[in-house]
Each structure stands twice: as C-alpha cells, then as structure tokens.
Amino acid sequence: MKTVLPDRQQSLVQWVSQATGINTFGVKVRLRGNDLHILCEGTECPQRWRTLSDLLQALQQTNLDILTSNEQPSIYQVFVYGRRKGEQRPKWCHRVYLNQIDKHLEQVEQALLADSEKSKQSGGALIVSNESLARQGNPEAIARYLSETLSTLGVSVQAKIKPYQPKNSQPEENRLWIFCQSSYSPDASLLAEPIAQKLRYLKLSGYQDAVIVSQVSGETAPDWLLRVDLTPPEVMLKEWARWGDVQAIARLLTEVLSGLKVGVQVSLKESTLHIFCIPAFDPLGTAPIPDKEVCLEAILPQLEAIAPQGILAATVYGQKAGDKEPTWIDWLALPAAKYPAFATSPLDLANTGDEPAIIFLLERLLNPDLDWRLLTGGIRILLLNKHDLLHIMCDAPVCPGRQQVASKITQFIRHLKIPGIMGVRVYGRRAGNKEPFWHYGVDLEHRQRLVPEATPEFAATSKYVNDLVTSETSEPILRPDLTTEEVQSFVTEVARDWMATASATAKKFLLKSQLFTETHQSAEHNFDDQGLKIALVWGTLGLLLTLQTDWVLGRMIARNTPSSPKVASVSLPSSSEHKASLTSGKNQSEKTTFFTSTSKTKSPPNQSSVFNASEFTQNDDTPTKNLAAAPLKEKATATAILLAARSQMPSFNVRQLDEQLALYKQRLARTGSPPDVLIIGSSRALRGVDPAALSKALATQGYPNIDVFNFGINGATAQVVDFVIRHVLEPSELPKIIICADGARAFNGGREDITFKSIAASAGYKQAFQKTPTTANSNDSTENTIDSAEKKTNEEKPELSTYEAVNQSLNQALASASASYQNRDQIKSLLQKQLLIFGRNQTVASQKQLTDGTSDESTSQQAVDFDGFLPLSIRFNPARYYQKHSRVPGNYDNDYKSFQVEGQQDAAFQEVLQFAQSQKISLVFVNMPLTADYLDPVRRQYEQEFQQYMLRLATNPNFIYRDLSQQWPKANDYFSDPSHLNRFGAYEVSKKLANDPMIPWPVK
Fold it and tell me: 348-358: per-residue pLDDT in tens?
C-alpha cells in the first residue's frame, strides 16, 4: 500500500534524495520537537562518511525552515541514520548541530581521509557542546541545550529574554522565558524537575528566575506554567549558612580550603562551631597535617562574612583523619559574640514569631537533602500572618504532596507555640501558580468561626510581593469595580432581606394554624365556635402524639434492656458492677468521654469506637477498671524531626533510628553526661518500659534521680542493638546499665533481618565513626491534667399543698398507665448519649472538611516523648481486635520463619556481651510479656528454645536474664495488641524491674 506523506515531508525527502543520491524510496524523515531524523537505507548500507559529506554540503546551502511549514518550530539538530533494507536497527547514527556545520564538515573530511589510508584513527575538529554555549546566556543556545532532553519526548523548545520591571521600584531585570510546544499535553510533573535541574546546572548569571510555558500545538492559551528559581547555589548556601546551618557552612569552607588540599569536618555543639582540618586525600597516611596559619587565614574571613546566627565561637582543630588528639587547636570569636542581634538562635527567634527564622527552619525541615535543594531549588516557603492564623505556602517545581509536608509543618508550628497564633493553614502548589493545589488546616486552640475562611493570595515569587508570573495568563477578575466595603454592604443587605422574609413566612404559618392571632385583633373575634373546634382538633392530635411517643419510647427501652440474666455468664461485668455502672453512669461517662475526647482521630459514623488515633483497637463500651500509669509527657516528634534533619550524621535509612539518636544526642548535650539506664530493643521495648515510671519506682527503692532513656526502635533485632551500642554510640555516651527488652523473634537467625539490611545499605552505616553531635534547645512542658468532680446537691422535701397533692396523685395514675415513665432516667441517659454522638460526629465532620484528611493527625498520636518512650493507652480486646486483624498462627508468622537462635543474631549478641564486659557495663535482658492469645503451641515451643538459650548465656559475668513472657497472659488490659504492652503494662513492668534486688542499679 502506498503511503501519502505530508507536503513538508515530501519536500524534505526529495531534498535528501537529491543531496545524497539515494532513491526517495530509501529515505525516511521524521520531525520530533526541534530535531529532524533522517533514515537512509538501501540494498547495501549507505557509507557513513560519504553520505554525511553530501548531506552537510547540502545543509550549508539550504535553510531547512523553508522546507517545513510555518507551524513547525525551528530545527536545531539533525540525526542521520544508515541501515540495510530489511534490518530493524541502523548500523550507524550521527548527530549534526546546525550551528556548527563547518566543524562537522572538517571532521567528516578527516574521517574520509583516514578511510582512504585504511586507518581506524578518527580525527576532527573540536565541536563545542550546546551546554558550553548555553552557559554564556545565549537564549538560542539554551533552547538547543534543553531540546537535547525534551525532543525525545516530542517537545520543541524556544527561548526568549524579556525585560521585567518589578512593581516595587526595583531596577529592571531580565527574565528567561522557555516556550515548550508539543502535539499533546505533557504532565507538568514529568518535565518540571528535568528542566529545573538542567537550567540550574548552567549557573546562569543575570536572571532571577525562568518561566516555563507549555502549550499544545494549535492552542492559543498555555497549558501550564512553571517558575524555576535561578538563584545560584552559592547564594543559597550563604543564605542557610547565615542562619547557622552546619551543612551549608561545611560546604562553603570545603570550597575555600579545597585549593589548599585540606578537608573539613564541621559539627555544632551548643553555641560553638567545631571545625576539623584534615588532609583532603591521604590514603597512605603520609600527608602532612594542614598548616595552622594557612587554615585560620582562610576560615576566619569566611566565618566573619557569614556571621552565623546563634553561633558565638568556633574551635578549629588540625589533625589527621585517624588521630584521636588534634595536633593544634585555636579558638575564634564570631560576630554573634559582639552583636546581640546575632546571638539568638533561629529556634528562639521562631518562638517569638520571627518570620525569616520560621521560613528557614521550615525550609530546612522540608529539604533534608541539601544536594537536591541546590539541584532543583527545593521546596520554598511563603508565610502570611493574618489575624490569629499562620498561612504557610509550600511550592516547588513539582507540587509537594500533602502527606509529605502538612503533618511535619503543623507539628513543628505546634511545638513553637508562637504567641497570638491559634491555627495553621498549609497550602501546596507548583512553583509559578497563584492558586494552591491543596490545603490543610489545624486549630491549635479553639476558635470561633462563623463563615468559611478564604484562601489568601500568595505572591508567585518571594521577592516581589504583588508579582504574578504573567498578567496574560492570570485568571480574569470578576467585577473589578467592587471594593471590599461594597461587597460587605451587599452581604449585609441580603442578610437583612433574608431575615425579614423568614420572619414574614413564619408569622404567616403560625396565623394559619389558628393557634396564634395578631395583637391588634379584638378579643371577641378569638372566641368563636370555629376556634373551639380547632382547639379540640389540635388537642386530640396532641394527645395522640403523646401516646404514640410514650409507646415508642417504651419499646426502645425494652429493646435496650437485657431480657435474660443468662448473658452475664459470658465474660461480662457482674450484676453488682452493672448496677453500680447504672447508678454512677455519669462518672463513668465522664471518664470515657475524657479519654475519647483527647484522641484526635476523626472516625466515620458508627466506627468511632473501633480504632483510635494510633490505629489500634480501643476499649469496648463495657466499663473497665482504672489502671495505674505514669503521667503522659510532652511529645517530642517535631523536635526529633528537626534535630534529625539538621544532624551532620547521614541517615541510617530507618527514620525512627535517626530520630531516637537525635533525641539521645540532645539529652547528652543538655545533661552533659549519658543517662544512668538505657533501654534498647524493638517495639516491645519502645512501648514496654516507661522511663518515668522506672525512675520514680527506683526513687522509692532508695535510688533517687536515676536518669533513664528508652532507645527502642521498631523492628530492631540483636544485630541492630549491637550496631547501636558498639558503633553508633561512643563509649563515653553509654550508661552504666543497659536493659535489652525484647523476645525470641529478635534472635531468630533464620528469617530475613529487614531492619538491619536497610541500615547496612545507608550512608550512616558507612560513616558510623564520623558522627557529628547536634544540639537543639527545647522547652520542656508538662502535660496538663484534667480533674473532673461530680457536683452533688441535696434537695429537701417541701410541704405539699392540696393542689400539689391532687397533681401528684394524677401524675402517679398516669405513670402507672405509661410504658416509659418508670424508665425515664434510662430514656434521659439514652437521649443524652445520642445527642453526644451526634455532636461528636458533627465536630469530626467539620474538622475533616477543614483539614481535608485525617491521616496526618492520626500519625502524630504515635509519637515518642522526650524520654524516647511511646505511651499507648489502647487496651487489647480480642473480640474487637480480630474483627479488624487476621489471627496469624505461629507456623505462618514470618517473625518465626525457619526459627533458630544460632546464627547472625547470636553472633551479634555475643559481641554485645563481650563489649559490655570490657566496658564494665551491666547488661540485663528482659523477655517481655505476651498474651495467651499470642502464645499458641508453635510459638510456645520456640519460646522454650529461647529460654534454654538465654539460661546458657546467663552464666556470663555482668549479664542478668529476667523472664516475664508469661507474667500476665490473661491481663489484656496491660496490652495494646497480642504481643505489645500499653502504657499501663509498661508501668507494671517498670515497677517489677525496680523491685528486682539482683539488678545492680547505679547509686548517685
């Protein structure tokens, strides 16, 4: 079948055929973006250099734009292919830059000469890449440079420079415009980051930003806009270094000292910057120690120019990489020591509401990867403080995900406790857009809100407050002649008219019922026969309605009342308890309401009592006894996230390990010494031993002021514990006693250790001995407790008059005939309960509409406190738990897969034992409690094997083994799920450990 080519392709095919002498049936062309692809084929593959020579000579004399239609964008480069007919892949391919044809010709001529001499050596002139030309700022070269990437996607590129006059009397600047055109609408997220990376990689000077406009061929309006921040990376580094960011300061000092072949390691401890100067490259250990005078002359001017916020002094060391002691040391006073304005830390400034400090801390929190921020521009923050709300806009080349940033921001702002701020509103958009793609809100305090809150307008750039990317693409303004006062006046008039209309309608309805009359009507007109008949009809209807209501309420009470006492034998409260709960229902409901209201979970109707904020099952509705537990402490999630983000130590690929380590380092910096007791293990340790309860119980045993920290990590095994104790923490950072709280599954050497594999693949694992301690100031606050007391009133019986006696006798007579009068207290409680449920659902619905999602707030409930402990108040209820979770028997549990205690986990724990003995650290292993539901026959057998293994290890010195696995198998109130304790169980375990006389608790 003959294929009819478009006119432009026919002309191109004929031109190529005439230039190369190849038959038109052997030439195929394709236009894609700014690229022209030419395929030459024949019975024998066309010769590469001869074909290129003919084609390049023709290109010298021809303007390809004449051979294409007016709608086709300019052609920047030509790809020429050669193959034999019938083959699928070309034998050779050559790219030709149309702006360097002369150099291509020279290269081809030398290749032809080499072929004639039977030489395989290739020669040619040096062809300058489009990247080198684009760095000079030429718009055509920038377009060619971008088309190398975008043409493969069928996107053509044009670049222009337009002058731009800011609206705030700033000097005129140039703005780079990149126009992308394609036959389809490419997704902005597909092109945003590649374009941003390539433009920022050029390090263009003279441009504040660039605007990318994507448009479909044939359309008049652009499809989408994108703004790329062209601020040079050096400027970004200096901006963050000015705020005291350790990584930014380290980068700047490294650039300065790299010419001197000196490497730099920087850490921050309290308000002193520690700078270690080492040889940049010293594989054999023979390089000399960096010269003190040379290093100081290079470092001091940089630090004085930066003037880092909140850093008062710097200590500079000179040493080799492996040396423990520096060869020389010097101290430098920084500008913050002389000028009080520089002495306040960014966190303290943010607590006072300083917007630049808040912006820096938020950008640092959302951009933990400094390289990625320098490469793409990262996530920018715009702030707007309006009334009692703090509006925060997050924009980036690709719109930040709400799940990615919203919860981090709200937790951080909640931790700051900025005066006058009662709520946070977070927005996300693509850089360059005016309207946000999503929004999220949290009220820090209760606010009265009568009308929905409008989204405020944020500038498209942070430099120009009233600037938008382009006025041509802005949405049209409806009724620009209306001012705010006119709109408010219009709303007031409409509301007044609506009230008048509603009043007139209600009045008309009441008059039609003939139960009401107007005040100006005469009294004689009211007492007529028709009025008496109407009164009789309405009275009859009222009586029927009363009887019907009484019958319905009686049926409701009968249905809710247990019909037989036989049900009491099935694990329900005893009759005495049930009776007590009815008589003291108010007190029980208040306690239940308190624990329910403190949860931030927003559950749908009919599911509010199944899951709590931690997504664990809650207690059922049956009354439960009060259990002892330590008071809840302040959550440390926001502080841990910020400390981990600012830490110089690379990540371990396990977020909880990064955050627990950051909290531990903060504790060391604050106290100046390690804690007395360290609890470590998996989630069973994280939730199962309460440091506050343990410290308090030890104080009653004669061990006052014992400092305890919980270093539990979800999924931790013996290998993870060994790595943390021996490699992550320094010997000087270890306590006098370590409690390892876990069980058999942490020692299973037959299963895959996923947590340790993630750690082993991290950069932090490789640089475990190059840790940089970080400190941060945090304001400790205590948990506010709510005390509720039931008010009791004594009523005296008044004397009854004759009328009152008759009234009482009539009431008693009607009560004996009523189906619901005897149970009026139960009806009252039932109605109150339904109204409370309805009000709670309405509140949950309004909060859900405001925040547009609940997952971010629910995750904040699973947060450790500043002691590293995760307190959970959920009580394990098997009936409800297994409605939502599968019951997994032990032979199908992956934690016990191929169970064996010998192997890599055993070897790791043996290392821990030897290390503890060498450091004279007492090591206590606690086999944590389990429920009877969890200990099926298979798991019970594995537990017995583990018991024998631990008893063999118990002969080691400085090692104590305590078995609590079957301490409370039936006490479900102490557990949050079948194998994890809640804070009530943690309290009991802590007391039991404190009362153990064999554990050598430290004495202060």
Answer: 999 998 999 99
Q: Which residue has the tokens 């337009």?
A: 162
Neighbouring-strand partners of residue 426: 392, 440
Q: Which ranges of 258-396 would DSSP assign to H, the alpha helix?
A: 292-306, 335-338, 340-343, 346-351, 355-366, 370-376
- Do 746 and 927 meet the contact criterion of CB atoms below 8 Å apart? no
Amino acid (1-letter code) at residue 887: R
Q: φ, ψ for residue 500 (rounded to 5)? A: -65, -40
Structure confidence at residue 687 as a pLDDT band (50, 70, 90): very high
What is the tens place of the pLDDT at every residue in 819-845? 666 666 667 667 766 665 665 554 444
Minimal CA–CA distance to 183: which of 148, 151, 215?
A: 215
Classified as helix, coil or strand, 926 is strand
pLDDT reported for residue 471: 36
What was the pLDDT predicted at 676?
93
> 755 vs 173, which has greater pLDDT?
755
CA 39 to chain centre: 50
**Amino acid symbol at 671:** T
Residue 309 contacts residue 350 (beta carbons within 8 Å): no
Tokens of 831: 């109605």
- Mean pLDDT confidence for 945-964: 88
Residue 648's Cβ-count burial label (10 Å; 0-12, 13-18, 19+) is middle
CA distance 286 to 279: 10
What is the gyration radius of the CA atoms in the chain, in angstroms?
A: 39
Q: CB atoms < 10 A from the CB of 893, how many? A: 18
Structure tokens at 15: 């031109």
DSSP letters along 455-477, please? PPP--SSSS-TT--S-STTSPPP
Question: Which residues partner with 27 through β-bridges?
Answer: 40
| DSSP H or E segment with residue 382 | strand 380-386
In whole angstroms, what is the distance from residue 459 CA to residue 274 CA? 39
The gap between the terminal CA atoms of the chain, to the nearest Å, is: 96
3-state per-residue secondary structure call for 47-88: CHHHHHHHHHHHHHHCCHHHHCCCCCCCCCEEEEEEEECCCC
**Rounded to an integer, what distance in angstroms lies between the CA atom of residue 767 and that of residue 760?**
11
Alpha helices in 151-223 (DSSP H): 188-202
Whether the per-residue pLDDT at 123 is higher than 50: the answer is no
